[in-house]
Design goal:
Elements (H helix, E strand, L loop, with lengths): L5 H21 L3 H23 L8 H31 L13
Helix pairs in contact: 1-2, 2-3
Length: about 100
């Protein structure tokens, strides 16, 4: 059986986080921005699970934090999609550049 090292998990998480960060910073479509935020949260989850499985005292703490992050991500997605639907109904667009309600 092949042993997967923690470095591979960290590399995967770094790649996912960078893809998510690139999407958040460059995309104008707000649904895509929400999806990219989810990618970044999943990168954090991979790190938490990887770090919880290493060391002489491997514990379940990282996995419990992962469940907490998944719960927060689900709530964030629900609230974010509700906000997007309200924005679309009021402005007929979900382009991030056109949403200037909170700008000074």
């Amino acid at each position: 059986m092949t042993m997967v090292t923690v470095n591979l998990f960290l590399a995967l998480a770094a790649i996912l986080f960078c893809i998510g960060l690139y999407g958040v910073l460059t995309r104008r479509h707000l649904v895509v921005v929400l999806i990219c935020i989810e990618l970044m949260l999943n990168a954090v989850n991979i790190n938490l699970v990887a770090f919880s499985s290493i060391g002489p005292f491997a514990s379940i703490t990282g996995q419990v934090f992962t469940l907490f992050v998944i719960t927060v991500a689900a709530a964030e997605a629900a609230v974010g999609l509700a906000i997007l639907i309200a924005l679309y109904r009021n402005r007929a667009s979900i382009d991030a550049i056109k949403q200037d309600l909170l700008r000074w």
